[in-house]
Fold this sequence. Notes:
By secondary structure, the protein is α+β, with helices and mostly antiparallel strands. About 20% of the residues lie in helices and about 30% in strands.
Amino acid sequence: MNESSITPPFDILYEKGPCICVQKKAGLLTQAPPGIDNLETQLREFYKQREGKTGNIYLAIIHRLDRPVSGAIVFCRNVRAAQRLAAQFRERTVRKKYWAIVEGSPAEDQGEWHDFVRKIPDVAQGEVVDESAQGAKRAELAYRVLARFERYTLLEVELLTGRYHQIRLQCAARGCPVWGDQLYGATESFGPAVEDLRHQHIALHARQLQFRHPMVDEMVDITAPLTDAWNDSPVWQQLRTQLNREVAS
Length: 249
């Protein structure tokens, strides 16, 4: 099959050797049981078609993005690459920056947030808890305000730890939930209307991913373009105008 004739249902942001970084669509699971559409299965099918294979395709999931979140995510095609890249995530040498439009605004223009969080048992939801609570894990992030428009604020967030629903939880705990994230208190929906709420989008985008290629001595720096849900939003257009003014000044 002609490789150029194969169009995957995702955008490839970077591919070299056993590493591939793609753009995950909001509303799509990173991984799921058989019969449920997910990015891992889409990527396996893409490789089978491109390489003309019918057997198993090795594909390691190094990290995940929440279902309603869009943006950059990296996978590995062999065990050695997966082990080395996973070690970078564990050692926190991978830089992960997100853009988030939140309702309201944090108290300071920039800073770090430190909380303890945990996943609520048997529920697809987390909570901020006291340090002494059973299952509590320390959650750390750094943020800065990029732009403001009316009751919305654009944040750039760098994850310093990788906890369950971390950005969503820590924003909501400070009275500024991610736009569209009704699970954590947002009052307005974001993105296209959906019949199934599980496919809902939120205004959280994995914007930048930086890591050292696990097989060759070079740094990889990926920026994921914003989605149509962002670009079609009048709120984002106003925030972008403010952002461009800040950059120009």
